[in-house]
């Protein structure tokens, strides 16, 4: 489960949502739940504030990962790793405890998938199929589509997932991770 600060939050509500998410993650009652927070991507003015407030308020105990959307280059992972390392050191948290789940949502991210998958703290790779299809100008399954088009759309998405899985497999010997599709 992840609490969302990205697509689910309007621009004028980002600061308030950030505080609510940070407080919620620090609350008890999440027993047995694997949980994290999806921050805004690095092309926005909100990412660093999302990470700083959540880690500073919620600490690193009880939640375990940051979902980073729209990753196009391993530099996005390195920037988040550096910020997390500084926050963990500042707040006395175990170094490296907070993992990163990477969302691949465009052609550039897919092109750079091998380096991204090998980035520090990467625990999972997630395909954002709608954004990816838009990036590739690819037809997707739409209501009323006939079966041949639906099969072609599903095949294309499967091919994208396989490419991500292959990249993850190359780094799997060093750590255990997951590959999934964002609903």
Query: How much of the sequence is in beta strands?
Result: 5-15%
Q: What is the C-alpha radius of gyration, as a whole number of Å?
A: 17 Å
Shape: globular
Q: How many helices in DSSP terms?
A: 7
Derived from helix and strand composition plus strand pairing, the structural class reads alpha/beta
Which sequence of strands runs across the widest sheet? 1-2-3-4-5-6
Spatial gap, N to C terminus = 12 Å
Unreliable residue stretches: 143-148
Reading the helices and strands in chain order gives EHEHEHEHHEHHE
Average pLDDT works out at 84
Give a short account of the largest sheet. Answer: 6 strands, parallel
Percentage of residues in helical conformation:
40-55%
Instruction: Tell me how many strands there are.
Output: 6
Characterise this structure.
The protein is an alpha/beta fold and 183 residues long. It contains seven helices and six strands, in the order βαβαβαβααβααβ. The chain has helices at 14-26, 47-58, 74-90, 107-111, 113-117, 129-135, 147-171, and strands at 2-4, 36-38, 65-68, 99-104, 122-127, 178-181. Strands 1-2-3-4-5-6 form a six-stranded parallel beta sheet. Strand 2 (36-38), helix 2 (47-58) and strand 3 form a beta-alpha-beta unit. Helix 2 (47-58) runs parallel beside helix 3 (74-90). The longest helix is centred in the C-terminal third of the chain and has 25 residues, at 147-171. The chain is globular and about 45 Å long. The model is unreliable at 143-148 (pLDDT under 50).
């Amino acid at each position: 489960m992840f609490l969302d600060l990205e697509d689910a939050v309007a621009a004028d509500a980002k600061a308030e949502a950030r505080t609510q998410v940070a407080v919620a993650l620090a609350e008890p009652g999440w027993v047995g739940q694997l949980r994290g927070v999806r921050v805004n991507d690095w092309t926005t003015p909100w990412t660093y504030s999302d990470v700083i407030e959540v880690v500073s308020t919620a600490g690193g105990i009880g939640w375990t990962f940051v979902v980073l959307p729209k990753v196009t280059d391993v530099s996005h992972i390195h920037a988040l790793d550096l910020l997390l390392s500084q926050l963990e050191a500042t707040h006395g948290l175990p170094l490296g405890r907070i993992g990163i789940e990477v969302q691949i949502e465009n052609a550039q991210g897919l092109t750079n998938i091998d380096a991204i998958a090998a980035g520090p703290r990467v625990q999972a790779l997630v395909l954002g199929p709608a954004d990816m299809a838009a990036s590739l100008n690819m037809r997707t399954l739409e209501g009323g589509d006939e079966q041949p088009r639906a099969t072609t759309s599903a095949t294309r998405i499967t091919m994208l997932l396989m490419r991500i899985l292959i990249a993850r497999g190359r780094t799997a010997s060093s750590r255990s991770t997951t590959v999934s599709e964002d609903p």
